[in-house]
Amino acid sequence: QVQLVESGGGLVATGESLRLSCAASGSIFSIETMGWYRQAPGKQRELVATITSGAVINYADSVKGRFAISRDNAKNTVYLQMNSLKPEDTAVYYCYANRVRLSQGREEYRYWGQGTQVTVSS
User: Fold this and answer.
1) Contact 43, 101 (CB under 8 A)
2) How far apart are CA 101 and CA 28, in angstroms?
3) What is the pLDDT of residue 7?
4) pLDDT tens, 12-54?
5) In the 8-state DSSP scheme, what is residue 14?
6) What pLDDT does residue 1 have?
7) Are strands 77-82 and 18-25 parallel, antiparallel or unpaired?
8) d(Cα 94, Cα 32) in Å, to the nearest integer?
9) Is 56 helix (H, G, I), strand (E, B) or coil?
10) Which of 3, 18, 78, 85 lies at a CB distance of 3.0 to 4.6 Å from 71, suitable for a disulfide?
């Protein structure tokens, strides 16, 4: 079984920065895609950013130029550096992993972390 554990959320003021981390654990051989989604109260979960094992990156338009995603493949860890935060970035941020190749050879899909709260005050 694979677990994703996020850390780094919190309360910040407009314009400040936060860095989220997510570590995947279990009998993992490789992970094709890792990333972050977020869900604000009363809204659907939305993509923030994803990164593949080959470092192909995709950002939501709303965070381009402010957020930066990166990963450490050896540690099965993904990071999200969030700069110039705005009140509209307030949400629960969920770590995501897809196409997880287990040590036994089986490939599994779509794992989610438990979420970490990010609150940006105006």
Assistant:
1) no
2) 6
3) 95
4) 999 999 999 999 999 999 999 999 999 999 999 999 999 999 9
5) T
6) 84
7) antiparallel
8) 17
9) coil
10) 78
DSSP secondary-structure letter at 27? S
Give phi and psi for 115, each to the nearest 5: 95, 145
DSSP 8-state class, residue 75: G
Half-sphere exposure of 13 (CA within 13 A, CB side): 0
Cα separation of the two ends of the chain: 40
**118: its two tokens:** 């990010």
Which residue's entry shows tokens 């192909």?
56
**C-alpha–C-alpha distance, residues 65 and 86, integer Å:** 13
Helix residue ranges, H only, the chain:
none
Determine the Cα angle at 41 with ends 81 and 71, to 5°: 20
pLDDT per residue as tens digits for the range 66-108: 999 999 999 999 999 999 999 999 999 999 999 999 998 899 9
Check: CB of residue 90 under 8 Å from CB of residue 100: no
Residue 71: closest CA among 106, 95, 102, 104: 95
Spatial neighbors of 106 by CB under 8 A, at least 6 apart, are none
